[in-house]
């Protein structure tokens, strides 16, 4: 069976800094896959290559067998992407935000209303659909962005830090919606996160990324089990990187701090 995602020997360099260092990733159709690592590990840069927003320095990306460099538009059509920066417009209502995406993705006019209302319904936003997105809670905004990404009926959903800046209850709700989407639509989901506990609960398989490299890949249970009965994914991260997630997260530069604050502020 063709993999949903195949990245082979993928690298990206900013000036002299090798942000992604010869990464290999193989994701099976229907998998919920987590790319984990601290700020600056190279997760977003990997995702940007995979979603055709950056051209790889070395290596290849295939999405459902389609080469992303040769056929970027075909790959984009297969992908729903929710970036880390917020994409919903606070001055539009929920329904207007999703309609905008329906027009961007050329959903034929006669299906548009139904597709928009189905996407809002799938994310539990039917009642709030007529309100300005600026009045939504952080969790509702994330769900609105998920509704936007569903408009193109993607086979692969790519989520960059879907729960960053949310409180634990809102995070749990967002995860439940993602899990439901995946099982109801047999979608493949690739997400980045630095919350190890979430990856442990929701991902079928994870790759731990550190300083541009994938250090280890496996199911959360296998990775933990390899270290002993009471091991956590934090222990696994420490074992394979010689580092702690907290410490490396603290090393994130001004760009990371600024972005995290901006995201937290906008999510309210
Ligand atoms: N536009 C850019 N110019 C220069 N360096 C960059 C740029 N974008 C990212 N980097 C650097 O590349 C490395 C990887 O960044 P990337 O954003 O991919 O990490 P990440 O794991 O997604 O972290 P975060 O969760 O903070 O987004 C970091 O060292 C970062 O500072």
Automatic annotation (TrEMBL):
Does the keyword ATP-binding belong to this entry?
A: yes
Q: What is this protein called?
A: ATP-binding cassette domain-containing protein
**Matching InterPro entries:** AAA+_ATPase, ABC_transporter-like_ATP-bd, ABC_transporter-like_CS, P-loop_NTPase
**SUPFAM superfamilies hit by this protein:** P-loop containing nucleoside triphosphate hydrolases (SSF52540)
Q: Which residues form the ABC transporter domain?
A: 5-236
MF GO annotations: ATP binding; ATP hydrolysis activity
Which organism is this protein's natural source?
A: Trebonia kvetii
* Keyword terms: ATP-binding, Nucleotide-binding
């Amino acid at each position: 069976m063709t993999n949903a995602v195949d990245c082979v020997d993928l690298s990206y360099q900013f000036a002299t800094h090798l942000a992604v260092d010869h990464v290999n990733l193989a994701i099976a159709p229907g998998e919920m896959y987590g790319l984990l690592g601290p700020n600056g590990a190279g997760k977003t840069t990997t995702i940007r290559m995979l979603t055709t927003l950056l051209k790889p320095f070395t290596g290849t990306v295939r999405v459902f067998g389609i080469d992303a460099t040769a056929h970027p538009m075909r790959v984009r059509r297969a992908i729903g992407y929710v970036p880390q920066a917020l994409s919903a417009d606070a001055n539009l209502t929920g329904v207007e935000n999703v309609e905008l995406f329906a027009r961007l993705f050329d959903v034929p006019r006669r299906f548009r209303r139904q597709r928009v209302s189905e996407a809002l319904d799938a994310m539990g936003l039917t009642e709030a659909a007529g309100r300005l997105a600026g009045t939504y809670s952080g969790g509702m905004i994330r769900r609105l962005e998920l509704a936007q990404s569903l408009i193109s009926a993607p086979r692969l959903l790519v989520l960059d830090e879907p729960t960053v800046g949310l409180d634990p209850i809102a995070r749990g709700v967002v995860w439940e919606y993602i899990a439901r989407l995946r099982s109801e639509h047999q979608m493949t989901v690739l997400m980045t996160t630095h919350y190890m506990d979430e990856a442990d609960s929701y991902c079928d398989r994870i790759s731990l990324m550190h300083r541009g490299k994938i250090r280890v890949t496996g199911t959360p249970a296998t990775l933990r089990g390899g270290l002993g009965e009471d091991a956590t994914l934090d222990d696994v991260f420490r074992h394979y990187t010689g580092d702690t997630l907290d410490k490396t997260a603290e090393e994130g530069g001004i760009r990371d701090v600024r972005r995290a604050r901006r995201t937290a502020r906008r999510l309210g």
